[in-house]
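Hi support team,

I'm opening this ticket because the web form for multi-chain structure prediction keeps timing out on my end. I have pasted the exact lines I submitted so you can reproduce it. The total is 696 residues across two entries, so I didn't expect it to be a heavy job. Is there a limit I'm missing, or should I split the entries? Thanks in advance, R.K.
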Amino acid sequence: MSKKLTVAVVGATGAVGREMLKTLHEREFPATEVRAFASARSAGIKVPFGERELTVEELKEDVFEGIDLAIFSAGGAASQKFSPHAAHAGCVVVDNSAAWRMDERCPLVVPEVNAGALNGHNGIIANPNCSTIQMVVALKPLHDAAKIKRVVVSTYQAVSGTGQKGIEELERQVRDLFNGRDPENNTYPYRIAFNCLPHIDVFLENDYTKEEMKMVHETVKIFNDPSVKVTATCVRVPVFYCHAESVNIETEKKMSARDARVMLSQAPGVRVFDNPRELMYPMPGYCVGDDFTFVGRIREDETIENGLNMWIVADNVRKGAALNAVQIAEELVQRELVRVTDKDIFMS
Amino acid sequence: MSKKLTVAVVGATGAVGREMLKTLHEREFPATEVRAFASARSAGIKVPFGERELTVEELKEDVFEGIDLAIFSAGGAASQKFSPHAAHAGCVVVDNSAAWRMDERCPLVVPEVNAGALNGHNGIIANPNCSTIQMVVALKPLHDAAKIKRVVVSTYQAVSGTGQKGIEELERQVRDLFNGRDPENNTYPYRIAFNCLPHIDVFLENDYTKEEMKMVHETVKIFNDPSVKVTATCVRVPVFYCHAESVNIETEKKMSARDARVMLSQAPGVRVFDNPRELMYPMPGYCVGDDFTFVGRIREDETIENGLNMWIVADNVRKGAALNAVQIAEELVQRELVRVTDKDIFMS
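Hello R.K., no limit was hit. The queue was backed up. Here is the completed structure from your submission:
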C-alpha cells in the first residue's frame, strides 16, 4: 500500500457511521489513514476502528483539505451543507443521506447493479435508500433476463432504519410493557412494540410516504430505465435489524420460478435461500450481520401471464447502508476515480 | 324471547372459543340456553359467560340432540368428525376451521358480504380464514362499484392467529431474550420475537402456503366470482393481536382514492381511518377488541390504469373468527334458518 489515501467517516458516532468504520476495517480498505468526524457535540469521543480507537473530530467546512474520500452518514442537512465543501477541497464524497440521490449531477450507485455509473462522477456519489438497495440487488438479474415492467412491493422494515434511537425505542417500549408501565413514544408517532406502522419518513402530497416514493424513483435511476414502474407500501415492524420485502413483479418475458432461482443463485451479492420443503426461507431475525441479499419464497404468480412473487431480506445497516457505501468507495479506488474534476460544480 | 334456542360453543376453552362465548354474551344473542363443549381433557373446566360460568362438557358424537346451533372452533379434525353428527341430529353448525370451507355443500359466509349464501344451507356453514374475512369486507364495496380483476396482498399476521400457544410463544421468547436466555421455538419453526416468518400453515405443491391459497380460493367463493384473481404472501409478525394487510387492487373501472374512501365509509363493518396529514392510519396495536375492519393508506397506484393501494387492519380473533361466526349465527336466527333439511347429507 504505497499510495496515500486518507478516508474520513462523517457522522462516525451514529449506528451507520460505526458500522462503516467496522466495515472499512473488516474489508481491509486500502486507506493509509482513517479519520472520524461528527458534530461539535460528539467531538472528542472515541470510536472503535478494529483494535484501535479513533478520536472523533469536529465537522467543519474546512476540514476536508488532504482527505481523499469521505463517507457521510450524518443526515441530509449536514450532507447538503458539508458535501460541497468536501468536493471543493478535492475530497470525493459517498453520501448515505437522501440529499443528493435524485440530483442529476450525482450517480446513485449499488455496485452489483450499476457500478459503471461511477465513471465521470462529479465528486458526490449517493448511496440509495436501504429498502431500495436490497430490492434492486435482487431484481437486477431478473430485469436483465426478462425485463421487469411492474413491481408491487410491501416492506417489513426494522427499527434500526431509524438509527440508534429506533432501536432504543423498541427496546424500552417492550421493557415497559412487560413491566406494566405505559410505554412512551418519542421516536415514532405511535407505539412500535407489538405493532406495525404503515408510515416511514414523511407523507407527501400524493398520500404516499417519502420512503415509498424513494423506492419508486431510485429504482428507475439505478436501473437507468424509466419503463420500470414501482408501487410501494412501506411498513415499520417491531424487528431490530434487517428489512424484509414482499415483492411481486410482472415481466415482459416469461420466467419460471425455477429459472429465477438459477439466475439469482449466480447473481453478485445474492444468496438464494429457497426450499419450502426444508422450511428454508430468509428471515430478518436470522440475517443480522450478513452482507448478502437473501431471496426466497420464489413463486410463479398465476394471476398474470408473466408474474413472480418473492421475499427479499437483507441487513439494512450493512448492505442497506454501511456496506454499500464502503463498496462504492472500493469501486472508486479500483477504478482510480478518487478525484474531483470540477471542484466548483456543487458550490454555486 | 319465547322460542327455545339452545346454542353450543364447541372448543370452548381455546382462545377463539372463549371469545365466542364473550361475543354471544356481549351481543345478547337470543339463546335460551348456552352450553360449552371441549375434548375430554378439558371437561369439567369452568369458562366465563358474562357474569356466569359454564361447566365444559365432553364433546361426543351423541351430544347434539336438543341443541339447535353449534359454533365450532375445535380445529379441522374435530370438526370433520363431529359436525356431521351435529347436522344429523338437526343441529346447525357454524364452523371456524378450514374443514368445510371449500366443500360445495357448505356456504362460506361473511355476513356483510354474502349473507344470502346462507339460504338453502345444508346444516354446516363455514367461517372463512381470518385473513380472508377482513380483506373481503374491505374489498366487497369496491368490487361492486368497479369490479376487481386482480389482488396482490401481503399480510402482517398476529401470533394469536395460532391460538393461545402463539401468544405464549411470543411472550416467552421476548422475556427470554430480555433476560439473556436462549429462546426456544415450540410453536413456530423459528423464533418469532423480533422476527418475521414468511410461512403460515403448511407448504403446498406449488410452493405457496395453505394460508396463501386460502386467500385465493376463499375470496372467489365468497364473492361467487371466479374472475377475481388473488395472489398472496402471508407473513407472521411479532404482534399479539390484529392482522394487517397491504393490498394492491386492479379494477375494471376507474376509481379514485377519494371515491374509494367515500364508498368504504358507507360500507357495513368498515371504518375508514385515512388521513395522512393527521397521521391517521389503522394499526394492529390500536384495533384490539374492535369489531370493525379498518381501512387506511388508500392511494391511487400510478403503475397501472386502474389501481389502488390500501392497508387493512382488523382484530383477527374478533372479526377474523369469533365475531364473524356469531354474526353468521345471528343471520341464521334472523332468517329463520336454524334448521337442517337433509340430515344425512354429510353422513355418507
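A quick check on our side: The helical segments of chain A are 15-26, 76-88, 111-114, 130-146, 164-178, 210-223, 257-265, 318-334. Let us know if the file doesn't open in your viewer.
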